[in-house]
Every structure is written in structure tokens, then in C-alpha cells.
Write a structure and sequence with these properties.
The chain is mainly α and about 150 residues long. It contains 9 helices and 2 strands; from the N terminus they run αααααααβααβ.
């Protein structure tokens, strides 16, 4: 439902560029990210013309999201830390990123070391251990004791 509304706004911007609002577009992109690994973000990004993709803050959002899409999670957390002001009003953003990371870990590895999960899951190992329970309830992910090799 939200995606359809956002796509309607993007279509309005395509047909009426004079109504384009950069901050609204930034919020639409960030809301689309919450639904990863689905293609909402890519669909929204493709509906923005190139000139508007170069505007601030859209350019910054596209740059700090690139490491997430390419599974460079540590770089994503660093970029996100530098751009936390973009997330005002986006409820559940970090939780959805955690779910996406768990999804990627679950489909990539048969077994996961705790150190690997802690490294990719969050910028803080303390936060990882606080959230470990949420990871463990995902039946697709098994966590092996430290020192166990990660099997691709």
C-alpha cells in the first residue's frame, strides 16, 4: 500500500517536474529501503531522473546505501553513522536493515560464526549481543561456536 502511494508521487514528479520536492523524495527512498530485499528501492530509484539524483540529499542517500546493496555491511554502518540525520521520521529503519542482513547471512552461509555475524550485523558488538536473540529465532540461521569455520 505504501509502495503504491510512493510510486504515485514519483509518477506525479515525472509528469510535473515543477512539483518535485527533494526532501519528500529522500523520505520515499528511505521508506523503500525498509522493504529490502524486495525491489521497492530499485523501482523508486529508477523513477528519479538523473538530474534529481545528483541533488543533495538524494545523492548522499544513494551513496550511503550502495554498500548495503553490495553487502559491504561495515562500510554501510560507517556511512549511516555519518548520515543519521536522514533517518528522522523513518520508523524501524535499523531493524529492517538487521532483518536484511540476517536474510543475506541466511542465504549465503550454512553456518555462521558469532564473530562474523557481529561484524556484519551492526557497528557495535554490544548491540549485536543485545539483538542476538532476534537472530537466533530465525530458523534459517545457525550460529556456530567461535573458532568454527564458516562454510559457504
Amino acid at each position: 500500500m505504501i509502495l503504491e502511494a510512493n510510486l504515485a508521487v514519483l509518477k506525479l514528479y515525472q509528469f510535473n517536474p515543477a512539483f518535485f520536492q527533494t526532501m519528500v523524495m529522500a523520505q520515499i527512498l528511505l521508506n523503500a529501503l525498509i522493504n529490502l530485499p524486495h525491489t521497492d528501492f530499485t523501482l523508486c530509484k529508477c523513477m528519479i531522473d538523473q538530474a534529481h539524483q545528483e541533488e543533495w540529499p538524494i545523492r548522499q542517500i544513494l551513496c550511503f546505501i550502495d554498500p548495503l546493496e553490495t553487502c559491504h555491511f561495515q562500510a554501510f554502518w560507517q556511512a549511516l553513522e555519518e548520515n543519521m540525520d536522514f533517518l528522522e521520521g523513518i520508523m524501524g529503519f535499523e531493524d529492517s536493515v538487521h532483518k536484511f542482513i540476517c536474510h543475506v547471512a541466511g542465504i549465503t552461509y550454512q553456518h555462521n560464526d558469532r564473530w562474523l555475524l557481529a561484524e556484519i550485523y551492526t557497528k557495535s558488538v554490544t548491540t549485536f549481543y543485545q539483538d542476538l536473540y532476534e537472530i537466533l529465532i530465525d530458523p534459517r540461521i545457525s550460529v556456530e561456536p567461535e573458532g568454527t569455520n564458516v562454510e559457504p
